[in-house]
Amino acid sequence: MIPTFLHLLERGTEAFPAAFTFPFRYTPHPLCRRAALIVQEKLQEMGVEEGKMYGVLIVRRGEGLFFLAAYSGQLNGSYNHPWFVPPVVDYLSPDSYFQQEQRAIMAIGNRMNKLKDREERKECQRQVMLLRGEREAAVNEAKHIYSEGKVRREQLRPTATADMKAALIHESQQQKADIQRAKQLHKEEIADLEERLATHNATIHALNEERKERSEALQQWLFSQFNFLNAHGEQQNLTSLFQGRFIPSGAGECCAPKLLQTAYLLGLQPLAMAEFWWGSSSPTHYRAPGAFFPACRSKCHPILGHMLQGLNVEPDPALHYENRELPPVSIIWEDEHLAVIAKPEGWVSIPGRSDQPCIIDECYRLWPHIKGSVVVHRLDQDTSGLMVIAKNARMHHILSQQFERREVHKRYVALLDTPQLDRPPRFTLSLPLAPDLDNMPRRRVDFLCGKEAITDCEVVGKEQHGIRDVTRIIFYPHTGRTHQLRVHASSPIGLNAPILGDRLYGLPDERLFLHAEMLEFEHPATHEHLLFELPAPF
User: Fold this and answer.
1) CA angle 129, 134, 135 (to 5 degrees)
2) Helix crossing, 162-183 with 119-156: angle to 10°?
3) Cβ(297)–Cβ(439) under 8 Å?
4) What is the DSSP annotation of 9-64?
5) Is residue 45 classed exposed, middle or buried when 0-12, 13-18 and 19+ CB atoms within 10 A define those classes?
6) How far, in Å, CA of 499 to CA of 536, rounded?
7) pTM over 0.85
8) How far is CA 520 from the centre of its chain?
9) CB 259 within 8 A of CB 57
10) Pairing mode, if any, of strands 514-522 and 409-416?
11) Main-chain phi, psi angles of 325, to 5 degrees
12) What is the mean pLDDT of each run of 10 residues along the chain (538 residues)?
């Protein structure tokens, strides 16, 4: 019997994938695109409006071609919809251990609230506050009398007789004693009330500790229930996969783990996978319905690192520069203070996690006498073009200030992966950017938490690139946010047209067709106006 969530996919003209999808950077396979359209039709039929991630997994069962569909987390408050794969762990079932323990923990919380609301305890609190207030007022009044008396006594002492001085001393001692007596006001009553209050609070504290311990134990139990298979049949749970690191809320409830888990349990052969957004989205973080996204790294990277073992997975596109000889860095211009270089695509600006060729290391090789910071601004690894290099700390500081004050002018040329751009010849994009914490190193448009990012744009026109129609565009960035041009181009509320070859926000190609072709600034030492141009190699 075929499960209700295993859907037949008619064979078309698409070639089968040569390897399984690398889930964190991929181009959706045509089979996945076709399956995604079927899922979207189903969601429209169901009247689903809630925005969330959905996923499809193309599988082979014998000679038949099928697909599985999943949604992230819950759909309409449930983990179980017959058309979609089941969750890895259904802890929302009313008779599950999780729900039973949750009810017990909630009952402890209710007991605590009832104890806190008992009239006897509240009356103790009121009386303690009242008596403490009276005591504080008495102490303040006694101190005030003492302070005024002290001023008066200081004025009288120089001309006072011996008897008067003795009286002044006695008065001072009497007023100090009044302060001490005020501090003792209601002491016994307050102590008795606090003791009674402590008895109430001790019970509440004990219940709170019990609730905390049971909540933590239940969380650890739940982590242990999320057991994930891989293609070898090996199994690991969340606790072992995250190896002592913080386990994010919702880990194991995303589409990709649910899809792969179901495929392994049913003995299906995974062929390709893709995830897409459907439904409404936040005004501050717009996601176009039907747009494909990578698996989230924060929750899924450790899980999928295990679950993909045993599959023939596509190589990570981010590693496509490894074992590749890159063109050398060339010096466009230099003097004793600074240099302008041409960075080829593939070079990273500063050292990262990989051993990729790095501009800083190359600068130390080219100019052995320089030390410390040399890179004033950065270009993405995939971007080529002009960079200014400081040869000493003073030049670095002054140039950095010029960039901060937006006194440095830059011009980029790019090819957009679209045959037509419905925009005027010149326009400005102002879309604030923030890190996409679930999908680092990606950035996203965020009107709530993002930093200002402004780009002037000039459309050059349509042209042919191989067999593709693309649009050439000029960018003039006013700000220098990470991935600013790439996100402004790819965002649905930006140009909705990724830069050709963008492996993060679009589709891979022979390279990222983005080039920094002009750099204009004032020389920090000579105050000479400098302008450099380097035509794009495409």
Assistant:
1) 95
2) 170
3) yes
4) ----SPPPPSSB--TTS----HHHHHHHHHHHHHHHHHT----EEEEEEEEEETTE
5) exposed
6) 14
7) no
8) 34
9) yes
10) antiparallel
11) -80, 120
12) 93 92 91 97 93 96 95 90 94 87 96 94 94 95 95 92 92 94 94 93 96 95 96 96 90 97 97 95 75 88 96 84 84 97 94 78 92 91 96 95 96 96 95 89 91 97 92 97 96 93 85 97 96 97
DSSP-based three-state secondary structure for 455: strand
The catalytic residue among 192, 361, 380, 417 is 380
Catalytic-residue membership of 361: no
Q: How far is CA 242 from CA 246, 354, 437, in A?
A: 7, 22, 17
> Structural domain boundaries of the chain?
6-89+227-314, 116-216, 330-533
3-state secondary structure of 348: strand
Could you identify the residue written with the tokens 């008619």? 10
At a CB cut-off of 8 Å and minimum separation 6, what does 1 contact?
none
Chain centroid, CA 441 distance in Å? 9
Q: How far apart are CA 23 and CA 257, in angstroms?
A: 11
**CATH number of the domain located at residue range(s) 330-533 in this protein:** 3.30.2350.10
Instruction: Indicate the burial class of 238 (C-beta count within 10 angstroms; 0-12, 13-18, 19 or more).
Output: buried
Strand 384-390 and strand 514-522: pairing? parallel
Residue 318's alpha-carbon distances to 267, 271, 272, 303, 353, in angstroms, are: 31, 21, 19, 20, 12
